[in-house]
Each structure stands twice: as structure tokens, then as C-alpha cells.
């Protein structure tokens, strides 16, 4: 299936070569980019602060909105402190670069995002989390007292699989553990409201940090690191923070003013996921988890057949370019109930 090179905005539908397609792909789970009131708030923020802010955060001229956003997000997430970055990838790189220098051993989960992978470490993408966690336990028992860094995603959005970390309680207490979780596909969808999984795992016997992109569920072109005050303050003293520019401030103001809009979209997403799960209840070909809005399937012929019926789904080879296609239907808050009913009707006709 050839890529669709679009020249217009992606909504619940997309236009391509004069035809309109229902769009069931992407990562804009809450569909905030298609909420006119949110777009207006962003425009208001850009009008107030400008289109970007190219100054370092350590400059003697600073914008209050960054600290205001960080304080609010950290409080709601259940963390002591936060740092906002221009992207989730940069946030992850900054976090893992800082933490890996302190670690004597690193345990890396199979599907860990490249943003939080130390250089030279390539986990086995085909290993399952249960087998990996059992390996971590055995290794921790064997090792002498050490500083151990554990790296993982909150969710694998491709299979999909939601990861749990209660097993960390079983690790021997002779070590000092740090856990870094990438929440890119959790913000807005899993955990505490809009704010990801930090509060879910802060009870674990580890130093906990969460990093990730805000540009998926929350539709903010920015990234964030959440953690304890001491660690966050130390990261703000690193060269990677001191020499980088922050995200556009107008988006952060829009977020702070759009709480009711995010809540509205979350409710729509829950309703849409519930509807689609009910529609496909008799179809055993889908793999999905809890209320996560991703539904994977293995039939390699479906993406092309669905495209011919005016429906675009997510389909690309992963993790390597020569691997079979990873195929998914992504439901968002932007979809109408009739979109999901039509999708189910087409799927039912595929056999």
C-alpha cells in the first residue's frame, strides 16, 4: 500500500486526489486539533506571545507561562516538579542521558522508545514484558549492590499492550533503582486524567521519572519530564536544557485555558471506544486492551481493501523496514458514531 501524501489538514476525514477517506490512523487520540474553540485559544496565545520563543530558559528575559505550565502539570500528574521541552524526543534524550551517567546497570524493556534508549543499547523488540521482568528479577538477585536504571514505555501502541510495573516491588532492596517511563502514548488516554501514569507508579520503591511527547493525545507540540524536585533541578542545570529553546508559549497558554474542552474530548473518546468495542464484539480478529483506542489486526490484505472502500487505517512495517506490516485501527474523539458504524459495516464485509 503506497503512502498517501496529503496537502490539507487531517480531520476525521482526509482528501486525496479528489476523494474523501475516513481517517482511522495517527495519534491525535483526543482530536484536539479538530476542536475550533481550541484552535482559537491557540491563536489567542500566539497573538499574545508570538509564534515562537527562541530564547533559552536561562536567559535573563523569561516568560512566566513556562513555569506556570510546569507547576500546573506537575501538580495534576502527582509529581513534585516538571520541565517542559520543545519535543517529547528531546525530553526523553535529556532524561536518559542524565540518568544513564549515574547508573551501573541498565534494564531496558523490549519495546522501549528510541527517545529513552542509551546509545549502543538495542533491546529485543520481540521479547515480551513478562519474560523481560523475570530476567530483571534474576539479574537483580545476582548483582551486588548497584545503581540500576529501568527503562520502559507505559504502553506499546502498536500491539497494543498496556504495561504494568507492580513486579518492581519484588526486586531485592539491596539496589538503588531509578525507573524512567515514556508516557508519549499515555498522556490524555491513560492514568490520571490528562496527565499520564506518574501518579499510578509513584508508590514503587524507585526514583521515578516520566518523560514523553505532549503532541499526541494532547496535541501540544512539546515534551515534558516529570519527577522529584532534586532530579528535575539537576536536569535543568545540564547543557542540553540550558542550550535548548522551549516550545511555543501560545500552545501552553491554550492548554491551561482549555480544561473543559479536554474533558469534553475525553468523554467523546471513551464513548467512541466503547461503541466500537461493542460493534466488533463478535469479531475475534482484533487485539485491543481495556479502554485504549487502538485495535490491531493481522490480515495483511485489509488496509488495501479498506482504502478501496474509502477508509484509511495505520499500516507500516515495524520494527524493521523489511518486517511485515503492523496494522491498526485508531479510534479518536474526532470520529462520529456513524463513522464507527460504517467502519464496522465495511469490516464485516471483508470476511
From TrEMBL:
InterPro entries from the xrefs? Aminotransferase_I/II_large, AON_synthase_class-II, PyrdxlP-dep_Trfase, PyrdxlP-dep_Trfase_major, PyrdxlP-dep_Trfase_small
- Entry keywords, A to Z: Transferase
Report which superkingdom the organism of origin falls in.
Bacteria
Q: Which GO terms describe its molecular function?
A: pyridoxal phosphate binding; transferase activity
Could you tell me which residue ranges the Aminotransferase class I/classII large domain spans? 149-343
Query: What's the protein name?
Result: 7-keto-8-aminopelargonate synthetase
Task: Name its co-factor(s).
Answer: pyridoxal 5'-phosphate
Q: PANTHER family in the record, alphabetically?
A: CLASS II AMINOTRANSFERASE/8-AMINO-7-OXONONANOATE SYNTHASE (PTHR13693)
